[in-house]
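Late entry, zinc ion complex.
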Amino acid sequence: MKINEEKVILEENEVSTIIKEKEKKGIERENEKKILVKEIKKIGTQISYDYEIDRSLVSLLHMDNKLKIDYSIPIEDVPDEIAVIPFITGILPMIYLEDITVVLDRIDKDFYEAFDQIREGYKKMLPKGEWKGKIEAKEIIDHSKNPENGKSSVFFSGGVDSTSSLATHIKEKPEFILIWGSDILQNNEKSWETAKQIAQNTADQFGINTNYISSNFRFYLNENALTTKYRELLPVSWWYDVQHGAALLGHVAPIAYKKKLAVHYIPSSYNIHDKNVVCASYPTLDEKMKFCGCHIIHDGFEMTRLEKVKNICDFQKDSKPKITLRVCCTEREEEANCCKCEKCYRTIGELIACKEDPKKFGFPITEKEIRDIKKFFKKEEVQGTAVRHWKEIQNKMLEDQKYFKKLRYAKWIMKFNFDKTKRKDFKKEMWDENGEKI
Ligand SMILES: [Zn+2]
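Prediction complete; structure with ligand written out below:
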């Protein structure tokens, strides 16, 4: 990252207090790294953070773009020991790998204890890393009695994973939580409005509350520098491999405190059959997180993607409201799905395998277009995990060949050799300063 002169002066000022403190105490280790949380400002619905860092961390944290989070509910009365959690979780793997001491006044007891357990989860997933770091707090405050029984929330994107979680837990009416600044970056207003609209429509139909969060949490740290620094350790990227799970969950803490949540569900992407996975959202990490009495469930891990689609179809049969899925991996501004990418195609295939009409779930696709999907597989590269999902669709259809042979537009799926598709590997993800993928 380029550092201009003005920024250097700013950073010099911000590191100065810590350096002076060290000189005063004279007991610090030579290369000890500290982050000092100075102030947590809570005004209306917004939390912003003021902190100082050691000089050695200047290349990893953007001190001219400090963390700022906007909630859709007032958060002024959330105590500092809870409000600080999103700040810590956003840089959690960095605290561990850089062996940083976070110095602050107060911390929630549940989270303080979870801090060590999450570290163990990372150690298991990536044993070659040195996972250290600690929190140094003057006071540890116990909010474990905060929740009210049965109150829950779920990250709801409108995709297969989160809609299946909604189907499973509908009796609890889990509050929806959506974060702008995660997969949909803050510079993409139209996609965010579409995602919000779909979540709001579903929420309204089921009488569920929604919570929206806008956060610059992907850009108060230097993801590119961290991906580069740890390229030997990380198979894909900082964000994908170690950051996103804890960082997303931490944003829930102020809502959990305000709404007395007992459990928050993070819908799973992987399932129990996936082995040797390196991913920042996984049961061994997510379920170690805890704050103000609220625990986390990595939800639906026991189900394959096709089983989740079946769960949604069964739910749709039982409930009157119409469900629109938003699965598309291309950036959408208007409709939920493009009906032209692999993920849209795969979900269409899954709905057909469950003997449902994809049009009913937000895929306005014709029979001819479904027949043409096989051309896509002959031309395009497909990720290995996607191939596995397609074989599951194929096997499901083969279980009832009589039925699926009658579907002229879809029977090709039963005969197609998905093993012969061109394979695409995950690429290292890097971002430019405007938040565009490079
Ligand atoms: Zn699509």
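The chain has three domains: 5-141, 152-299, 327-424. Will revisit in the morning.
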